[in-house]
Amino acid sequence: QVQLVESGGGLVQAGGSLRLSCVVSETMSSVSFLGWYRQAPGNQRELVARIFSDNSALYDHSVKGRFSISRDNAKNTVYLQMNSLKPEDTAVYYCCYRNYWGQGTQVTVSS
Predict the structure, then answer these.
(1) CA distance 111 to 102
(2) What is the pLDDT of residue 31?
(3) CA distance 84 to 70
(4) Using one digit for the tens of pLDDT, what is the confidence trace for 47-64?
(5) Are 71 and 34 spatial neighbours (Cβ–Cβ below 8 Å)?
(6) Which residue from 37, 56, 8, 58 is spatially nearest to 100, judged by alpha carbons?
(7) Which residues pair with 94 in a beta bridge?
């Protein structure tokens, strides 16, 4: 059973930054799905960013230019750097690897 452990969420003022981390309990396959989702109250879970084997990335239009996803294969870790945060970024953020999910980490952005 693969386990994913997220950290780095918290409360931040609008315009601030947070860095989320997700440690995967096995060596990450370069060809498997790896990304971050988020879910706000009353909303469906949505893909925020994903990273590919060549380290290229895909972002939701709402976070493009503000968020950056990266991976450290030596540490089996994927990161989500979030800058210029807005109140509408408030959500529980989930790491996803293959078809496994982390427990989620709350991000709250105050106005």
Answers:
(1) 28
(2) 80
(3) 18
(4) 999 999 899 999 999 999
(5) yes
(6) 37
(7) 37
**Whole-number average pLDDT of the chain:** 96
Kindly tell me the sign of the dihedral angle through the C-alpha atoms of 78, 47, 106, 85: positive
What SS3 state is found at 71?
Answer: strand
- Output the DSSP codes for 1-70: ---EEEE--EEEETT--EEEEEEESSPPPTTS-EEEEEE-TTS--EEEEEE-TTS-EEE-TTTTTTEEEE
Residue 107, classed as helix, strand or coil, is: strand
Strand partners, 64: none
Q: Which residues neighbour 64 within 8 Å (Cβ) at sequence distance 6 or greater? A: none
Residue 107 has which token pair? 């991000």
Q: Pull the structure tokens for residue 2.
A: 């693969």
Say how far apart CA 46 and CA 50 lie, in whole Å: 11
